[in-house]
Specification:
It holds the Pfam family DLH. With 201 residues, the protein is α/β, with parallel strands linked by helices. It has one domain: 3-Layer(aba) Sandwich (Rossmann fold), CATH 3.40.50.1820. 43% of the residues lie in helices and 17% in strands. The chain has a 6-stranded parallel β-sheet with strand order 2-1-3-4-5-6. Strand 3, helix 4 and strand 4 form a beta-alpha-beta unit.
Length: 201
């Protein structure tokens, strides 16, 4: 079992995040899905960015920080689109983070970050929120810091292709993404079990 905190996109906390959390829970993982907009949602990126402006980035990050207060330090941090930026903002405060999942955007990885941290990126190809230069910068941080990085690009799909409520949705790409995410979490859970076994001996 892995512990996961999933931060929503700029559209607010919607069915796509809640359904994703339920899917991960059915696989045996514990998932927290904080509402960073206080109930506000949008159906377009333009509306979402207006919401973000109204709430304010500092408030978003502070709400995320409070949501993490009771979560073990080794939890996996996951973000959808805007949520990847939240992960990036809070990662320096959580050095024991078990893994990082970037969905629908390539966020920066702050340095220093602990060697061996596992990072997985899922994004459309092309995607303005995961341009080649940003992915290249991510790979460079990984190279310098000794991280483990998997990059999965999905050609020909829209930005938020995992969301059935949006025109971007692509069933095959979404299913492949969640299978890969579940594999990532199972590996995280396996490492946690191995670490616990070593500590007991």
């Amino acid at each position: 079992m892995a512990r996961v905190v999933l931060f929503h996109s700029v559209l607010g906390l919607r069915a796509v995040e809640l359904n994703a959390a339920e899917r991960l829970r059915r696989a045996g993982h514990e998932v927290v899905v904080p509402d960073l907009f206080g109930g506000g949602t949008a159906s377009t990126l333009e509306g979402g960015f207006r919401l973000l402006e109204q709430v304010g980035w500092a408030v978003v990050v502070e709400r995320a920080r409070r949501a993490l207060a009771g979560v073990p330090g080794e939890a996996v941090l996951a973000g959808m689109s805007m949520g990847t930026g939240v992960v990036s903002a809070l990662l320096p405060e959580r050095p024991a983070t078990g893994g990082v999942l970037f969905l629908h955007a390539a966020a920066d990885l702050p340095e220093p970050v602990r060697s061996g941290l596992r990072v997985q990126l899922h994004a459309a190809d092309p995607d303005e929120f995961a341009p080649a230069e940003r992915v290249a910068a991510l790979r460079e941080v990984v190279r310098r810091s000794g991280l483990e990085l998997e990059v999965f690009r999905y050609p020909g799909v829209g930005h938020f292709y995992t969301d059935p409520e949006l025109p971007d949705h692509d069933v095959a790409a979404a299913e492949l993404t969640w299978r890969r995410v579940l594999d990532f979490l199972e590996q995280d859970a396996g490492r946690a079990r191995s670490k616990a076994g070593c500590e007991e001996r």
